[in-house]
Amino acid sequence: MWEMCAVGASSTGTFVTQQCIIQFVADGASGASGPPGRIEWHTSTTGTAAAERMRLNKDGRLLIGATAAIGSELLQVDGEIAITGAFNHDGGTFGALGAAPAAQRAHVVDPTGGATVDAEARTAINAILVTLETFGYHATS
Question: What burial class does residue 81 get, using C-beta atoms within 10 Å of its C-beta: 0-12 exposed, 13-18 middle, 19+ buried?
Fold first, then answer.
């Protein structure tokens, strides 16, 4: 459809490859009112052609480090992410907030006394949560 480009200049003043590109692209077959669209962001490292880094597809999914959705989630990241501060969601907070007070430590309990949740699974999940706490993460509800 169309694109915006940023072209850099070398130290000698000659133009080099496109360093940043934002493309507006058809994202599927055209219908009666035209094709669905997506937006792609491309960047480059020194001396390389620009590569796609992020995409907002026709379904409103933001893909970072990926070019195809792998589920229905609106934000999909292929690679590691870093979060500074808390990560808030509908069920509570999960974030790098330091050690959790004992009263707020997340753990798995079974109100039926073991009839529905396997004790070994509960122990394994609790061990994972304790490990996360050693890295400064905790979950609260």
Answer: exposed
SS3 string of the chain? CEEEEEEEECCCCCEEEEEEEEEEEECCCCECCECCEEEEEEECCCCCCCEEEEEECCCCCEEECCCCCCCCCCEEECCCCCCCCEEEECCEEEEECCCCCHHHCCCCCCCCCCCCCCHHHHHHHHHHHHHHHHCCEEEEC
- What residues does each domain of the chain span? 2-77, 86-140
pTM score, whole prediction? 0.56
pLDDT over 60 (residue 133)? yes
Query: What is the overall mean pLDDT for the chain?
Result: 73
Which tokens go with 40? 């792609």
Res. 72: pLDDT tops 90: no
User: What is the pLDDT, as a whole number, of residue 103?
Assistant: 43
Q: Encoding tokens for residue 93?
A: 């907070």
